Amino acid sequence: MSNDEHIYRQILKAIVEHQLPPGARLPEDRLSEAFGVSRTGIRKVLQRLALEHFVVIEKNKGAQVNRPSEAEASEVLDSRILIEPQLIPALLAHWDAAQSKRFRAMAQEEKQAEAANMLADSIQLTARFHYELATLSGNKVLASFIEQLCYRSSLILAAYGTHGSVGCECGDHAQLLDLLDQKNASKAQNWMSHHLKHIKSSLILESKPEENIDFQRLFGR
């Protein structure tokens, strides 16, 4: 793993696990000192996180952890609830044993991350599962929209979610795969709708004050 990738994963993990709360400032100089790398290296990582909507970079203000509003959180999940179940019939047209095997491998990765208490990995893996399903529908416009919604959902789960937001409490993805194997579109649609509504209901939509963050303690080697 490259040094940039290591730093990216460490900062992402801290955001998702609430060690860096929404709105927390991310000073390049302090992060550079904590990781023992140049500010240029830190800047590259922050730009990558900004592309994924986990970080906001403002001119003359620097970077900070993105702070999705409560209204945005609700709207993003509501959009997914409206769209994702409707893609089920289209993706079933492309569903076969090879796809079932591929998605079951993804679901197994999610379970392993959850069992290891790796919340950041769990959030990323569940997002990948959902947008890969959307891609399989063949509707490139909606699949691209779902991909962006999944990125934004990842940040929302990091800001407002709990372990129950990405774990089995919201439904095991293997249950959905069983329904897809059975080609049962209506039950698969109902499962997806219930799954996403459960994720939304698990969010704790309240703002948390920013704390004085000790980057050296958090990331120092």
TrEMBL record:
GO terms for molecular function: DNA binding; DNA-binding transcription factor activity. Residues 1-68 form the HTH gntR-type domain. SUPFAM superfamilies: GntR ligand-binding domain-like, Winged helix' DNA-binding domain. The keyword Hydrolase does not apply. Pfam families: FCD (PF07729), GntR (PF00392). Keywords: DNA-binding, Transcription, Transcription regulation. The keyword Hydrolase does not apply. This is GntR family transcriptional regulator.
